[in-house]
Write a structure and sequence with these properties.
alpha+beta, Butyryl-Coa Dehydrogenase, subunit A, domain 1, Butyryl-CoA Dehydrogenase, subunit A, domain 2, Butyryl-CoA Dehydrogenase, subunit A, domain 3, four-stranded mixed beta sheet, globular
């Protein structure tokens, strides 16, 4: 279905990305899934084509477009059929480099944002720790200032792009006495002494996206590598969460679209009792329910995208969209696997990957339960006694 949020120029842009994905990504997905990462040259190629800079200023090599343009990139990468590939391509521009683009110095933008847009560098956001996930106030990584340097010590866990990134935007406590208000963000180059990558983590899904644990042992960085003001890191991260949730919702909807298309195609080809299985009313109605489920999530997601692009307060809408789409894609991919039956359980069919990749969508970027807690506050639902 079309949507009023996109115009003709958007659709032309979409077509160019889709052709690239179909020709230069889809044929190689299985190999990248087995390797546990995507090759560096495909990131470079994506940058050369201008797809990584859709929402960034031309000054830094971007296209000077809007968040709607970038949403098209997110959707078309997600349409490749591998959540891991899509995440590996988009994690740097959607998550890691955003604090630099919004709050970083001109020098930081030239050193990191520009080469990221060109596809010459990749980055990662280092927030989650073994004892701190959604509870950011519990971070134990510490940054101690010594003259013109900060000395950072701590560890990070479940970091997307963690094994291969060139730099990390790391959250660390600069004031241990004031909880989340004492967090700052820092750029740490991977070649800095004291920085090391620990285990490469094996995952249920998103297998083409590398994930790792990180260690910082008295890592010394210049004060110039602090992003924005000291003790403002929490607020910088929170501002990017709205866009991250929209990205997760867009990816969930697109992934569900692919699953439904696979279910419809397979049900028309697979015969039982002398008829294609799509002739059975129970399966036809199941696929209708899947389509309706997808459209509900799509329209709420596009509405939140529109509000975000217009600069309007949309915490409620983006949180709802992320929560709804993350749960929806689980239902749709599970129903697809059920329609495929035993074949869906075999690794040779891509629907098993849709099902595995979908599971993270209600966890990453804030669990559904965290989304609901945010919505309780946004809607003014108060606890009564």
């Amino acid at each position: 279905m079309g949507h009023w949020i996109f115009n003709q120029d958007h659709e032309v842009f979409r077509g160019s990305i889709r052709r690239f994905v179909e020709k230069e990504i889809v044929p190689f997905i299985e190999g990248w899934e087995k390797a546990g990462e995507i090759p560096r040259f495909i990131v470079q190629r994506t940058g050369d084509l201008g797809f990584l800079g859709a929402k960034f200023p031309e000054k830094y090599g971007g296209s000077g477009g809007t968040f709607i343009d970038d949403a098209i990139v997110v959707e078309e990468f997600a349409r490749c059929g591998s959540g891991g590939v899509a995440t590996a391509l988009m994690a740097t521009t959607s998550i890691a480099v955003t604090p630099i683009s919004r709050f970083g110095s001109e020098d930081q933008k030239q050193r990191y944002l520009k080469p990221v847009i060109e596809g010459r560098m990749t980055g990662a956001l280092g927030i989650t720790e073994p004892e701190a996930g959604s509870d950011v106030a519990s971070l134990r990584t510490v940054a101690r200032r010594e003259g013109d340097e900060y000395v950072i010590s701590g560890s990070k866990m479940f970091i997307t792009n963690g094994a291969n990134a060139d730099f990390f935007c790391v959250a660390a406590k600069t004031d241990m006495t004031i909880g989340y208000k004492g967090i700052s963000l820092f750029i740490v180059d991977t070649k800095t002494p004291g920085f090391s990558v620990g285990r490469r983590l094996k995952k249920l899904g998103w297998r083409a996206s590398d994930t790792a644990e990180l260690f910082l042992d008295n890592v010394r960085i210049p004060v110039a590598n602090r992003i924005g003001e000291e003790n403002m890191g929490f607020y910088y991260v929170m501002q990017n969460f709205q866009w991250e949730r929209i990205v997760m919702a867009l990816s969930s909807v697109t992934m569900a679209d692919s699953a439904l298309a696979a279910a419809m195609k397979y049900s028309g080809e697979r015969s039982q009792f002398g008829h294609p299985i799509q002739n059975f009313q129970v399966l036809r109605h199941k696929m209708v329910d899947m389509a309706v489920d997808i459209e509900k999530a799509r329209n709420l997601t596009y509405w939140s995208l529109y509000l975000y692009q217009e600069g309007k307060e949309c915490t409620t809408e983006t949180t709802m969209a992320k929560s709804l789409a993350g749960e929806m894609v689980r239902r749709v991919t599970d129903a697809t696997l059920q329609i495929f039956g035993g074949a869906g359980y075999m690794m040779e069919y891509p629907v098993q990957r849709y099902w595995r990749d979908a599971r993270i969508m209600s966890i990453g970027g804030g669990t559904t339960q965290i989304m609901n807690e945010i919505l309780v506050k946004q809607l003014g639902i108060v606890e009564t006694r």
